[in-house]
TrEMBL record:
Belongs to the bacterial/plant glucose-1-phosphate adenylyltransferase family. It comes from Carnobacterium iners. Residues 17-268 form the Nucleotidyl transferase domain. GO terms for molecular function: ATP binding; glucose-1-phosphate adenylyltransferase activity. Alpha-D-glucose 1-phosphate binds at G174, E189, K190, S200. This is Glucose-1-phosphate adenylyltransferase. The gene is glgC. Coiled coil: none annotated. The record marks Q69, W108 as: Could play a key role in the communication between the regulatory and the substrate sites.
Amino acid sequence: MSTRLFSSNMRKIETLAMILAGGQGSRLGKLTKEIAKPAVPFGGKYRIIDFALSNCVNSGIKNVGVVTQYQPRELNKHVGNGEAWGLNVHSGGATILQPYASVDGEKWFKGTANAIYQNSSFIDQHNPDYVLVLSGDHIYKMDYQRMLDFHKSKKAALTVGVIPVPIEEAPRFGIMNTDQTDRIIEFEEKPEKPKSNLASMGVYIFDWALLKKYLDEDQSKRRELEDFGKDVIPAYLGNGENIFAYAFTDYWKDVGTIESLWEANMEFLDPTHALNIRNSDWRIYSQNPSAPPQFLTETSNVTDAMIVDGCYIAGEITHSILSHNVKVGKGSIVENSIVMSGVTIGENVTIKYAIIGDNAKIHDGAYLVGKEKEIMVVGYNEEIGGLTDDEK
């Protein structure tokens, strides 16, 4: 009786977004040693998760759960209550959802579907018709409302966002094979010989009642539905559910490797970049520290670069991105590189084709030169150069 009364009084919403932001991002090496991949800085003043959060707000979706797991402290601090994205309102909100020990012994999320299952009670509190499941580690702008309209028009049980990729790159992705109506008829996980080039973006719209039924029944029996790509989509296909592919053709980038992260940042420097970051109709919001204006000394030389507030530049910066509060000494050269917040670069330093992590210290005379396909990485708080113990 009490359960029925509680259910009838629950505030009804159409769509709840769940951002899966717990990934370790091990291929980013030093950059994700202490923070989750979605919290990795991007483009000077953003973090990767800002794009999914901003897409939600710009799409009119104001109820967002952020599912964290690996090294969540920095990510939790960044997202907070969602104020930077306008989510701290009575009719919406951002909620951090971390693993916890439940009655049935569940704790760490075992996969994307298991993460949603373990947060079923949070989803039920919002009583949504649809659950929009997003990855928190991609760079793109997307109107999820258009995808939802497509989902409704097809009377779909599940709609998967897909993006055409070069056929030679298709083996890196989960590939959706469709018929002439965009219905998904086959799913291939990283196939050696793909039948199509429609790669999953990690963007899903589920009818919540049906997905919950699948997850609840599986939990009481086999406990096999742990991942959407490997488990849930094949189960839906096997049972003849209506699954459709929604084709997205604008800019989308998976920044899961050092090279792809560097490349995306370098593309970001292009004023005609497809993301159009200066478009006031679809802003990318973020939480940024208060810092004084940048200062360029008479010895500085800046060309084709983004320099964020708080920077002090006495050297030469070319085709690079410098985040907040970076100091570059006289005679130093930074070229084709990404320098994250709080970095101190001494005098007569050479940095090319590199990513420098937050609060790193690069001492006078250091020489850090990588290549376009072999980007050099300096980790957070790491020190390069300077006197050795024997020289001190």
